Amino acid sequence: MKLITRDTDYALKALCFIVKHKERIVSVSELVNELKIPRSFLRKILQELNKKRVLKSYKGQGGGFSLVKLAHKIFLVDLIEIFQGPLRLNECFLKKMVCPDMRTCVLRKKINQIEKYVIRELKSITITSLSKQGA
Amino acid sequence: MKLITRDTDYALKALCFIVKHKERIVSVSELVNELKIPRSFLRKILQELNKKRVLKSYKGQGGGFSLVKLAHKIFLVDLIEIFQGPLRLNECFLKKMVCPDMRTCVLRKKINQIEKYVIRELKSITITSLSKQGA
DNA sequence: GACAAATGATACTAATATAGTATCATTATA
DNA sequence: TATAATGATACTATATTAGTATCATTTGTC
Asked: Which of A83, A112, B87, B133 has its CA 20 to 30 A from that of A60?
């Protein structure tokens, strides 16, 4: 059971690198050299981050990407949601419930509680907190 | 992101039914009628539960399955581990880490902490607690 | 303006995991 | 011995994840 897939992981790494070069526009080529991520895959990821207004892109020669949001406002949980969809631990039970009749389902309550906790904790992880340690 | 897959879900349902008929041996046919789970798939699941000594199987006419463990000693997290492998939320990071050099990686610490919490909470959910409510 | 170097959009393939099926062998009971 | 059950195993189908390829568009520089 994976909490974080490859694209989220790559996005994290790319963002951490971009944060370190905050003043500049960073190109895909630079990121590929540095992070050894397959070029096309990384491009797709960065395009998505652009669409979701995490990064801003610049076309043409000398182009690339730079941060839109402040690093401490980019949460791990946001990236997970962008690349893996909403974090719903209880999805399966809501679809095919063990106890479809009960209003006060112990299991669902519990899973919801766990989900809330996980999201809260993931919200406490930002790009800032991640990029600091590597530097 | 799914915490619980179909087979775990089916296993849960089957176990809940078997618990309700604790004194008896329950056959696949009975479970299929009751739970509307594809027969072959359910058989595979029950065979696995037999191998993992959650159920005991009886071959031959009048055969079927009965509980080995007490219902309150079968934890949801056990079923997840049987069908989905060990619950490792941080698997991805351990494989392709954002911060491979650091001993004191903030992210890893955090993810480990979350994982522990999730496991502890899932440990509090047993077949007993699930089968009660439906009854 | 032409060229080069960048991203945008999009569609495709490959690999893996999940979900489900089918069949023959074995066992136990009536 | 026939039958009704599970055991073992191998197969197919579908969905998700991972990765690739290509052409269009934009922009800076000569």
From this structure: A83
- pTM of the prediction? 0.85
Taking the Cβ of residue B25 and every Cβ of chain A, the question of whether any pair is shorter than 8 Å is answered with: no
Average pLDDT over residues B29-48: 96
Q: Which nucleotide comes closest to B56 if you measure CA to C1'?
A: D6
Which structure tokens are listed for A89? 């631990």
Question: Domain for residue A119, yes or no?
Answer: no
In a domain, B105, yes or no: no
**Residue A80 belongs to domain spanning:** 6-85+126-134
- The CA-CA-CA angle for residues B7, B94, A53, to 5°, reads 85
Chain C bases under 7 Å from protein CB? Answer: 4-11, 18-23, 26-30
The CATH number of the domain where B50 resides is what? 1.10.10.10
